[in-house]
């Protein structure tokens, strides 16, 4: 389902060679990097971070999900590349999650094992100033700004831990392809129907200027979240998404985890839906 994506460095899953840039040689058996080997931040790193955040902040109003924005504000990370210790203190108090540094994309088993113990791996390196608009792999801007704010929201925090456990189970049963689709559509590119309208909570959307503008525009197709449909839906990662799925609340994601074991088996036998493909039973989100 995944190929390299030309923009803003959101990566598909299993098919991509792990980490073109990260410091994998010094990673520990669980995939994390020991504090002692972390490269210090330069003023240029902080400047890159500030401009990336400032650019996104101009388009968040009316587009970013309220729980995600509240989380971002609580993390107070606009002025400099955040430290994981500082953010972890806020997360522990809110939902018991913590952040661990990693060299980049991790093998699925390591990734799931960390999520299952409420440890979210955050890539340590940050893109170079000339890469503001485009990088191939997720960097700290995608991992931290995209994924961390919603870890302050209890239902979502519970869901992502359960996803970790489900991942370890699915890996034993060779069901990673449909499970990666669930991560892609509902963690990286998810939309939520809020009282004041449609909003984005997906990390891949909110860490990308182009995707944030596109996802909330009239261009893409938006379907009501349907777990079985998501598990059959393939995707491209080399362009903005042609289709998104809309949840009504984060508890819906956690509830879907319970259905997953049966649906994963069925999805392995079902014909995959091509990227942006239509199916008779599709429930278009009316909004
Ligand atoms: C699980 C998901 O489908 C995807 O395969 C992965 N995502 C990530 C990963 N590793 C990191 N660090 N971050 C991710 O988002 N490894 C695997
Ligand atoms: Fe991500």
TrEMBL record:
SUPFAM superfamilies to which the protein is assigned, alphabetical: Aromatic aminoacid monoxygenases, catalytic and oligomerization domains
Enzymatic class: oxidoreductase
UniProt entry keywords in alphabetical sequence: Iron, Metal-binding, Monooxygenase, Oxidoreductase, Phenylalanine catabolism
Biopterin-dependent aromatic amino acid hydroxylase family profile domain span: 1-287
Binding site for Fe cation: 142, 147, 188
Gene Ontology terms: biological process: L-phenylalanine catabolic process
Annotated metabolic or biological route of this protein: Amino-acid degradation; L-phenylalanine degradation; acetoacetate and fumarate from L-phenylalanine: step 1/6
Cofactor requirement: Fe(2+)
Reaction equations catalysed: (6R)-L-erythro-5,6,7,8-tetrahydrobiopterin + L-phenylalanine + O2 = (4aS,6R)-4a-hydroxy-L-erythro-5,6,7,8-tetrahydrobiopterin + L-tyrosine
Pfam (any one): Biopterin_H
Domain of life: Bacteria
GO MF annotations, alphabetized: iron ion binding; phenylalanine 4-monooxygenase activity
EC nos: 1.14.16.1
Similarity annotation: Belongs to the biopterin-dependent aromatic amino acid hydroxylase family.
Protein name: Phenylalanine-4-hydroxylase
The organism of origin for this protein: Muricoccus pecuniae
